[in-house]
Every structure is written in structure tokens, then in C-alpha cells.
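Researcher: Here's the sequence for the chain we discussed earlier.
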Amino acid sequence: MTPSGDAAHLSGAAAIAGLGFSAIGKVYGRGASGFAVDAARAAIADAGLGPEDVDGLIVSYGITPAYAQLPPALGMRDLRLNVNLNAAGATAAAAIQYAAMAVAGGLADCIVYVHADAPLHDPATRAGAAYGAAAARRSGGFTTVAGATGLPGANPHYALAARRHMLRYGTTAEQLGAVAVAQRAWAAGNPLARYRDPLTLEDHGAARLVADPFRLYDCCMVTNGAIAFVVTSAARAALLARPPVYIWGWGQGHPVYPMGRGSELGLRTGAAIAGPAAFKMAGITAGDVDQAQLYDCYTYTVIVTLEDYGFCEKGEGGPFAASGALARGGSLPTNTGGGQLSAYYLWGATPLSEAVIQARGDGGERQAPANDVILVSGNGGILDYHGTLIVSPHPRAA
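Model: Thanks. This is the structure I predict for it:
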């Protein structure tokens, strides 16, 4: 389906003016709300603002709620916008889109978006158990059948999608491993990354099986913490404390594939819908993108997303990754902070935060050489949701 809306007049009208982190990683004894307050305060301060300057708040969280007490804890009053949002891993991309539209439409002048989660309760908690227990608490009736038949949680469902891609296009386990290895090398330059030790293809192939074809290093981690962003008009952002990150384009795509015959699950994602819309709004093509910050809940999602954005032909994502294109010195530096596979997992806030860092030139030893046009993706559910952003350190007129 061809995108029908034309949002080109909104391209570059808003910008990300602040970025803030709470403590991130295996941080125990705190709830998601506490992390959210810390990250939001840091983002507001990063922009050179105070809570009195904020009149909009968008909050999302993983499996632990983080919203009820945020405005009073942050010293916010008389908000013109206060929203809780959930589009799974596509939430961050969607939230920035809505914030930009709200600013352009006069609904609010300065909006904080914060994502927080605290699934890990103690050092003994395994990542899968944390999310699996939460899913079990929400399950009932027919939804319990998946667990009883050996399909609990996201791992086996994404594994089915990956296996279908492998059978259709010849994608190999070594090509999946190339994604993990490249991102681990990027993570070595990220002081916030949990895993910074070198990873080889041999290490990848020798790791324990999680859900065939996924091995340990094909799967993202689980993280406690929060990340926040300040969104305001481009004109106002240019006057604030940090370099603005202009929002050039956006799009969403939600395929809602049935689990049945004829479905394209595993072969085509919402990036095939969201990508063209974002490129059209930004006035660019895939060839203009300098780097990609992609939602990498699994190595496979990187490969299929690259294809659906048009960075390579359908079915060529595996060879593209294996060519070194995603790594340092490659043609498309991807997930330059290590992504969710090696750095930290806070849904779509992970790739978005790295995009802001790269656009500002704050990447340090992991800074990619070109940052004029950066693509950000978010993926959620079992490939049910997708969001895309195009951001740049340059005003749209340039």
C-alpha cells in the first residue's frame, strides 16, 4: 500500500533538545517510576531547562508501571499533555512522532518522553524468567495454550520467523552471528554497554541454544533503567543548551499478520510500510542514510529490517551483514552503541538514544564518521508494530 498522507510540511519542525539516562543495567532495589524520574530530570537539565518549562509528558514502560506519580515528583504542574503510550518496541518512535505533531499543532510547547522498566528484582533473576513471569500474570483462557504447547514468550515466536526467513532465502546462522559480532565491537566504545568484551563468530556458534535457530548471542538482554527525551520546536531547540537533533521524517507500519497459511510473518515487516513514509516525508532515499540505529531484539530482526528499508534486496540481509557493512568501516554503520544485544535493552528508546548521541557527535571512540542522516527503527510484538524516524543534526532547510 502506498502511503496516502503527506507530512512533508512537518519535516524538521520539531527537534530533540534533551537526552537523559537513569542508572541502567543490573540495578536493583528500585522501581520503574524512580528510574523514570531520574531520566526525565537529566533530560530536562541536559536541555538547559527546568520542570516549569515543560508542559507535556509522554510515558511508556515495559512490564512494570511507571507513571502515576511522575508529574508531582518532577515538579510539573498545569500540563497541557499527559499521555501513557504503548506500542511495544515501536513505542519510542511513535512517541517522538506524536510529540513532534503536538508541538507543531500547538498542543504543547515542550514535551518530555520517558521510557522506564524494572523487570530484574535481584541478581538471581534470569531475563527470560522476568518477562515470562509478567506474561503469565497477564495470561488467561485461550492465551495459555501457547505456553502449554511450547511457545512461551517472544523467543520461540521470533525463532519461527527467523527459521522461515532462513528456509526461504538461505540465511545462515553465521550471518546472524555477523550481526552480533559487529554490534559487540561497537559496544566496546560505549561506557554504558553491559557487554564490551570481544565476541567472535566461533563464540556465537558455540553458545547455548535458546530457541532454534537462536543461540545466546542472538537474543537481547533485559535491563532496569530509564531514558528520557525533550522534544520542542526546531526554533526553540536551536536556542537551548545542547545541539538540536532535528526530526526530518517518520512513519509507522503495523502488518498484524495472522499465524496461518498465506501470512508473510518472518519475510516482511512493518518497516516496508513505515520506511517509505519516513523517507518521503524527509525527502530522502535509503541511499542517503549515513547510519542506522535498528531495533535488535534478535539478530534476525536487524537482517529483515535492513531488507525492508531497502538497504539491500529482499533475501540479501544475511550476506549484507556478513560483508561487514554494519561494522566499523562498513558502508552502513549500524547500532553503533552495541544495541540491545550488547549495550542495554529499553525497548525503542535504545536505538533512539544512540541516534541522539551520534547526531550530536558525542559518540567518543564509537562515533561514526558520517552522521548527517540517521535512521531509527522500533519493532514490537511479534513483528506486529513498527515505527521509523529520520533524524539529523542539520535543520531541514539545509
